[in-house]
Protein: Aminopeptidase N
Amino acid sequence: MDRQPDRSVDRGSVRRRPEADPYLPGHGDPSYAVTNYDLDLDYALENNHLSGRATLTLRACVDLDELTLDLHALKVVKVTGLKVKRHTHRSGRLRLMLAESLAAGDEATVTIAYRGVPKVVPDKIGEAGWEELEDGVIVASQPGGAPSWFPCNDRPDDKATYRITVTAASDYLVVANGQRTDQRRRASRTTWTYEMTDPMATYLATVQIGRYAEHKIRAAVPMTAAVPPARRRAFDDAFGDQPKMLDLYIRLFGPYPFDSYRVVITDDELEIPLEAQGLSIFGSNFLNRDWDSQRLIAHELSHQWFGNAVTLESLKDIWLHEGFACYSEWLWSQESGGPSTDHRARHHWERLSHLGQRLILGDPGADDVFDDRVYKRGALTLHAIRLTIGDDAFFEALRTWVVRHRGGNVRTEDFVRLVEKVSGTSIQGLIDDWVYSGTLPPLPASNQAAPA
Structure:
């Protein structure tokens, strides 16, 4: 996660913040960074019991005599690796008092064995984490659900690489982030191993377990789907345009940022789809050709660029994820022969104009972080920028944004600085009006140019 223009991402570094994200109090410790998680999980579906062993490779950012990790509900069995005098585990926080201090810059590993029945993590923003389906498991960690299934430094500005190994009953398919590097069956149980070699925020880590059949989709990058067999025909129809969405986003945003893309379709209905790094999860209720389903297929795919490859530093800047993904829906609308991007923008501006305008896009508050106004006003902000600087500069800025900050973290100020450098046009006044004011500004006049 990167902050300064023209600065390459140091995947082993982290920017300290004086406190945890105020939107998620009680999560994360800025005094150290995790560079790798090695998770070895054994899951029994019949009683929803999880046994785990997590090995964290970490680096001290300051001199340390203790570490604080996030782990919710599960019981700590043993701590090894680091010399620990004692540990306490209360209110979802695992404190390790070190027998030997770590100096700033020191690297170390710690292994934590744990077990129990996973429970979602309740936060002011909402519940998230490991949940049982009718027949399987869904893990939706955004925003603070990662501690429901592994001990972690749960903050989005601490990205790490991952190795995730899951053992489960052999008649279930297990999907996790990254490339599948191993699959071994022993009697009635199978062990699946996945590796995510690109830096990933904890809230984007996931495991999906279900009675799925996996099949390949012909696309510009390796693309697969895990689908209940009885849903295959409906899936093929509903997701038939996903490769074309990928082609559009590669053209507009630059190369797809990961090695592959997967979708998982649960037999259960879900209120909303979910994105994770390298994959997205949809309920069976989204298996149709209606615009509301198609736009969400496009939305979740676009998060691979905006939210996953390039990730916010703190949740107050959520528009850098959701505004970009919502705007991607409008781009797909025109590409697929529907209403133009400009038409979608003006339609939603009109709708927003009749709603309360107190929400501040650049700091909406924990209660409104996932409010629909954040999504739509964020997308409208991008459209206003595009109409101000022109198509060529706008899409060059988006591509440069991903290249420069891939694997890193960003703030609104970083985006403003980059757009101004690429376009040679000051947009600070526009940002002040759209991002930091509660009043809804007018959209600039359309330049009548066909969107790219």
The longest strand covers residues 32-44. Residues 73 and 232 are 37 Å apart (CA to CA). The two ends are 28 Å apart (CA to CA).
